[in-house]
Amino acid sequence: MEKIDIVPRTLIKFSMNSKMLKNVLESVSQEKFRSNISNKISENYFLLREERYKELADWINSCLEEIRLDLNFFCDSLKITQSWANRSSDSEYHHSHIHPNSVLSGIIYLTESNSPTLFGFENDWYCTTDVDSRSSIKISFDSEKSILFHRCDSIPGDMIIFPSNFRHSTDCHQSDNGSDRLSISFNVFPTGKIGRYDFLCGLEIEVK
Questions:
Q1: CATH code of the domain in which 51 resides
Q2: What does pLDDT average to over the chain?
Q3: For the chain, how big is the Rg over CA atoms in Å?
Q4: What is the pLDDT of residues 83-116, one digit of tens each?
Q5: Sheet of 117-122, strands arranged across
Q6: Is there a domain that residue 201 lies in?
């Protein structure tokens, strides 16, 4: 028997310089946070609209433009819609989720952590315990093989861009010195003229 693995998924990584990382980390450390499902998120859901994050926003926008050109996206530009900070204390984690109403999403790691981001998708040969999949008919129940994962290490200064429907989570953050795991997340949507009018699939929208 031969097993043929297909359909690879792609993550895109950029890395900011150490000076920008230091400035961003100082700003995020001063944000107010509220409890989330399994960790904490900033009370401000539009961080990158603030003047103190302008340098970071400009850098992200330049990275998004590079992606738009490289992948030949049919849109005028890619625009950040929402952006927020994440804080995980000891034993906290990010639950498994996707980002609705978004095309691309990003994670920027600000501190060191032994908790990687887990990118994964359901393996159709197996059954999971996820509530959303209980109505699906599966022929095997091997929970260890139900989700296929890629572990992306939390390296300060790295930014990972990925399709927003790519399911992801994190392991529990474990700290020996009491430090928190800090990151910034954001969503992206195309704006302006989108698609191909000559293919009868064009439209024009403005993302604010």
A1: 2.60.120.620
A2: 89
A3: 19
A4: 999 999 999 999 889 999 999 999 999 999 999 9
A5: 147-152, 117-122, 168-170
A6: no
| 3-state secondary structure labels for all residues of 131-188 | HHHCCCCCCCCCHHHCEEEEEECCCCCEEEEEECCCCEEECCCCCCCCCCEEEEEEEE
Please indicate, yes or no, if residue 17 is contained in any of the structural domains.
Answer: yes
144 located within any domain: no
The pTM score is 0.87
pLDDT tens for each residue of 117-150: 988 866 666 654 444 444 455 555 555 555 667 8
The token pair at 46 is: 């539009």
Name residue, tokens 């200064």: 157
Distance, CA of 144 to CA of 163 (rounded, Å)? 24
